[in-house]
Amino acid sequence: MIVLNLLCDHGHRFEGWFASGEAFRDQSQRHLVHCPQCQTSTVTQLPSAPHVKRGVSDVALAEKQTSQAGAPGMSALNQALVNMARRAENVGERFPEEARRIHYDEAPARTIRGTATADETRELLDEGIAVLPAPVPPEDEIH
Ligand SMILES: [Zn+2]
After folding, report:
1. Pair 95, 60: CB distance under 8 Å
2. First to last CA, the chain
3. Is the dihedral of CA 122, 47, 6, 18 positive or negative?
């Protein structure tokens, strides 16, 4: 899921959760996206996020999961994240670059994982690209 900053034609700013930028455009075209304050469906996406919500809202790469049994003691969310990370394309050190390309629709939307420094992560968050600490290490760290 991604958090998009949206603006209605009455100037109300609000946030919406969507599977992808594509999902937002599709729902918006079908007038399924409404301003929570005035209910208009004339809503546009702001080009970049002025801020990033902290906490659980930083999760960007989640996908809808079919439920499956998790390991003992592991929450369903954690299990979903682990499954997601295992399926994610490992782009290694190209993660910040690739995350940007996906965010700006220059690359196919998909789940990726890789490595990023604290500074790179902060820059991505500043650009409104939500990143998520991977619950499993990259392959080359598994011994
Ligand atoms: Zn409004």
Report:
1. no
2. 31
3. negative
Q: What are phi and psi for residue 113, nearest 5 degrees?
A: -145, 165
Q: For residues 18 and 36, is the Cβ–Cβ distance under 8 A?
A: no
- Type of residue numbered 138: P
- Tokens at residue 64, please? 């809808």
Rounded to the nearest angstrom, the distance between the alpha carbon of 57 and the centre of ligand 1 is: 22
How far apart are the CA of 48 and the centre of ligand 1, in A? 19
CA nearest neighbour of 23 among 52, 1, 51, 38: 1
Q: How far is the CA of 119 from the centre of ligand 1 (A)?
A: 35
pTM over 0.70? The answer is: no
Q: What is the rounded average pLDDT of the residues 9-13?
A: 94
| Residue 45 host element (H or E) | strand 43-45
